[in-house]
């Protein structure tokens, strides 16, 4: 993405291609570009989109796992950054699930 800044250095315009006004390149995921884009939208819509993104990430993880389980792809077929992100998420999920909010004795009963 290419941006134009105002005299204070804030992003005031963005373009997919370099133009006379938008001639400074920034990566699409840059925080200042994301802030500029989000200012143009409704907070409710932005929150809904963020929640949807989080849920969709889980869908993608499940699809990747199914493809690996079926032998369609292997873990090493994925780019290194994708491998690292999957491993990080798997580790975080395992830690969250192993907090042990219930004892083993509680697991055998019908009440929580």
Describe this structure in words.
By secondary structure, the chain is mainly α. The protein has helices at residues 31-39, 43-69, 80-97, 104-107, and strands at residues 2-5, 11-15, 24-25. The protein has a three-stranded antiparallel sheet, covered by helices on one side. A hairpin with a 5-residue loop joins strand 1 and strand 2. The longest helix is centred in the middle third of the chain and has 27 residues, at 43-69. It is elongated and about 50 Å long.
The rounded Rg comes to 22 Å
Low-confidence stretches: 102-112
Biggest sheet, spatial arrangement of strands:
2-1-3
Q: Strand portion, in percent?
A: 5-15%
Annotation field: number of helices: 4
What is the helix content? 40-55%
Quick take:
This protein has helices at residues 31-39, 43-69, 80-97, 104-107, and strands spanning 2-5, 11-15, 24-25. With 112 residues, it is mainly α.
